[in-house]
Amino acid sequence: MPVISRGFHGRRQDGPPDRVPPGQYVTEDFPVLSAGPTPHVHLDSWTFEIQRGDDLLHSWTWDEFQGLPREDVTRDIHCVTKWSKLDTTWEGVSVDTLLDTVDDDSAYVLAYSYGGYDTNLPRDDVTGGKAWVVDTFDGEPLDPEHGGPARLLVPHLYFWKSAKWVRGLIMRDEDDPGFWESNGYHLRGDPWLEQRYWGD
Amino acid sequence: MAGTAVLGRLTWLVAEVAATVPETPRTRTLVLDVPGWSGHRAGQHLDVRLTSDDGYQAQRSYSIASAPGQPLAITVERLEDGEVSPYLVDVVHDGDAFEVRGPIGGYFVWEAGDERPVLLVGGGSGVVPLMAMARAHKAAGADTRMRLLYSSRTLDDVIYHGELVHLDGNGLDVVYTLTRGQPPGWTGYARRIDDDMLREVAWPAGDGPIVFVCGSTHFVDAAADGLVRLGYDPRWVKTERFGATG
To answer: If contacts are CB pairs under 8 Å, which of residues 90-119 in chain B contact chain A?
Structure first.
């Protein structure tokens, strides 16, 4: 039984309860959370790669990436620091499209980024229409501070899984932890199960 | 890196307010008595959960202000449209209780055994986790160089001012900039952080310093980008940006 905080009344949930996971609150802002300086990546040197071990399975330049089939995506996003933002709109390429180009059925991926960030994901969480590599937010090119030129978007998991400045996926057999997952945060991060930290 | 060890679940613990310390017109420190608290490292944060008498709950994250081994304390800034911070700054008093869990975060952390020169860059209440590091530096008697560049709006907005005056020169250098107003005779900086200021204040990049930057997004970007332009290794410029923490 939680203790009652004397004199606390709260503002009450300001979003539809079926869209705001436990412990979250709705914000209109788009806060930025990054562990280091913002990498500034030039489009003429940008690539997106899919690797397995030392093998490069496929690589796209920016122009090649722009030629892939694109999707409009409108989703709610949920940050582990407690804010949720509803109906965010993105454009990009489905991870299904990217993975369909390689002959690999690994059970897990590690998404890695310019700047050194990485995050681990089960294949099932980035396929089946659940994840995208997006380069457009709200109709505009994605700002560097929000992960531009391109970031991963995995909106059904806490937003640290949506790696900013993404540069590729490493296919692998084990779900070894990525950056935040090595620093106290949950291996999978389902906001509806409130999987914020180790042991949740 | 903390490695892959799986710790036990961070459970909610009852925190009783042992003392409150007004810091500035907008901030207050809460000293918490938390039976079962496992201890923390300088720079980590914790989650607060408030529960109203009808069961409604709200959670937020706050940086820990105290050094490891000292009584656990958080410092909270009131956000005018916030839900939790006005309660913690204006309403709660000694003997009241809420819940906390933590400590959280294993990256934005300074360890007293680290021998690299340390640069702390804080904007507004972004100084809170940096203060935990400065206090840890003092408590450990560390002789590593540590310098704090601290940006506030006015002198009245400087959190921990009295303590920082005491620490300044005793193993810690403190450099202030006041961006919106300065008292008569002010000799510190009087502008937002820029590359010239960083060049004057920061340790030479060749000394291999480690940096902790905390503040608003724009503040952190200005400081972190400037340090990278000065030749700092981006891997050792650790940042924490606060978004909405109302």
So the answer is: 91-92, 96-99, 104-108
